[in-house]
Amino acid sequence: MSIERTGTLPLQSEQHIVASRQAVRSLCQLLKFSLVEQTKMITAASELSRNTLIHGGGGRMRWEVVEAGTKTGLALHFEDEGPGIADMKLAMTDGWTSGGGMGLGLPGSKRLVSDFSVESAPGQGTRVSITKWK
Asked: I want to staple 126 with a disulfide (CB 3.0 to 4.6 A). Which of 8, 64, 113, 120 is the partner?
């Protein structure tokens, strides 16, 4: 079975969150991630998809299969044009929640993946990128 190396999914509704989880599950299976690694990536994707929808007013999830030397991984990018994150330090604080999600927040998602970055500015939206290496 071939795998699309890149793609984009909208995040405009609860159904899109479900679709993003299913897409990440399929990609992880095709990349032969272990069940534990699949679960971590799907959980992080679910949390970040929900954040994009609820806090960012909707956006998109872009994905790409990445390689570095002999390693293969899955990179996901969650992008919105919402209000942005006013207090990044607070948003990256363990246990802080603005409500509505699984309570993992950005720091919980960060712990589930290999690489994590967030770019945001008030009024300019947010972009969170995560990568899980196999």
From this structure: 120
- Identity of the amino acid at 128: V
Contact 80, 59 (CB under 8 A): yes
User: What's the CATH number where 112 sits?
Assistant: 3.30.565.10
Query: What is the number of domains present in the chain?
Result: 1
How many other C-beta atoms lie within 10 A of the C-beta of residue 54?
A: 16
User: Is residue 1 domain-resident?
Assistant: no
Amino acid at 102: M
Query: By residue range, what is the domain housing residue 121?
Result: 6-133
| Token couple for 35 | 């069940």
Name the residue among 119, 88, 114, 103 with its Cα closest to residue 51: 103
pTM of the entire structure? 0.92
| pLDDT tens across the length of the chain (134 residues) | 456 789 999 999 999 999 999 999 999 999 999 999 999 999 999 999 999 999 999 999 999 999 999 999 999 999 999 999 988 888 888 776 666 555 678 999 999 999 999 999 889 999 999 999 99
Look at the chain and count its residues.
134
Classified as helix, coil or strand, 39 is helix
